[in-house]
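DM from R.C. (forwarded with permission)

"hey, sorry to bug you on a friday — could you get me a structure for this? deadline for the figure draft is monday and I only need the backbone to look sensible"
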Amino acid sequence: MEENYLPLFRKYRPQSFKDIVGQESLVRALSNAIELNRIANAYLFCGPRGTGKTSSARIFAKSLNCIHGPTLEPCQKCPSCVDITNATGLDVIEIDAASNRGIQDAKDLIAQVQYAPINGKYKIFIIDEVHMLSNDAFNALLKTFEEPPKNVIFILATTEPHKVLETIVSRCQRFDLRRITTGDIVKRLREISNLENIKITDDALYTIAKNVSGGLRDSLALLDQVSILGVREEIDKDLIEELLGKINIDVLLKLLNNIVNEDIENTLSCIEEIYSKGNEPRNLAENFIEFLRNVILVLSSKEFANIKNFTTLIDEDIEKINSYNFNKDKIIKILNTLIEYYKEIKVSTNPYLWMELACIASCRLDLINNKTPVQINTQTPPQNKNQKAIALDIQAPITKTIEPEKPRENIAQNVQTIKEIKPQINDEIAKNQDGAEIWLNVIQAIPSLPIKALYSGVAKLVKVENQKITLGFTHENALNQAKSPNKLDVLNSTVESLYPGFSVEFIKITPDTKVIELKPEIAPKPQYQPQKQSYIPQKEMQNSENDLKQETVKNDEKDEDNSNLNQEKKHYSQKVQDMIEQFSGRIIED
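My reply, with the result:
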């Protein structure tokens, strides 16, 4: 009869100290304790999953209870060694704290402590995932841990030592197991692959080792998963990445190249192709972020060996990346943009749309992240000495505000100035700016980054005539997204705040449709340079007039002493400043 199949991580579980991989400090400490006969009453093994906590506890117990023990090399043949290997020993009891975590379980454990060992020299209790015990159970065990009966040893294992009571930790000798290095994992995997006749390349083993977070058990489980395929043909790096849900580097290079070249249509097609193969948007975003990080490392380092130590790339991958001659600064900007959108991709009910917007925003970094101030010049030469010329600067910081000497008189004067200038704004905008400048200013003033990416990346400017901005779309899906109320409302409010009286219409682009190319460096020069004055946008003009009038009436009823005048002066100055900052396009995003 054939033997039952054992997974590789169980078949090749360490059985002695010399088999433990990557935990030299722990092995040295326990070996010295055995040789010097300085065995403590309680031990605490901490560390990430798959690093050998339970295996080390079993080996320590086996070394103490072997018929030739205490010894550093258990015989593996005596009844104690065999029982511990099969986890059936009466003297070495393993307890799962996750399912035995209550006060009654702790009392049962204390009752067992009173019995003497049967076959070995020590009665050893291995409590796995000890952090799962309740506070009552911990407190019940305190006295037993501090003064256990003779020849009783507790070995606690946990992945979360911060959850163990400090009073328990203080009664134990603590050992922290580290993550196993990539080199040690690859070496062990190669040994087992040769023993099991698994055909696998070194690059594939390296890929396994880099993706298991330092856990040897996880790497053996993955090797076991692919071992069936390695019986007749060699397992390569691409197969491992496919099993791990990694996207091929050639596909990611193609996507990145389209983004760098600002080819939005091919970028969206590439995303659709990746999605159709079963990769979820979140998985694509995570893979792309990791890939961009690797690209930046390649562009920053000249030594292939250094790059391979910190990435899963092989020499061929590094050469491919270098052949594209990417600009490192631009790649960093793309990475930052993608990270911003990843926050929404993780929680959105429509992550595919957010992934598209992330790539569109990355394609149009020039428009979305353009730092050059784009000014709307609505100035006219002063027609008389009472009329004030007004300039509205979308992005330049407000550096000057009106400081009236007599608040009441200047408030009335400001209201009158607003009434005089209000009907002139639309006419002057039409005179001094072309359609590209108007649309570019609207794009930069849109407060929402995703909506800004949609209208700047997918929408094409067709014309601006008769106070109407016409936008075209090549894809029906993009047109429907642009017409959705939550996006259209933001666009309309932005246009209204910058160009009162203007509206927006959408059309489907045909082969005969002519579009206007946008240049982000557009910055119209003002025709006049009078002293810049504060301006209150029209959208809030009526409310401003009412508020100012009400404040004027109230002030008429108060005494005009110096302290009141100073308070009013600060109040009106701050109020005008706040309104300018709120409605002049300087919108601070979350």
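R.C.: lifesaver. Confidence is low (pLDDT under 50) at residues 371-427, 521-541, 558-563, 583-590.
me: no worries. The domain at 375-576 is CATH 3.30.300.180 (GMP Synthetase; Chain A, domain 3).
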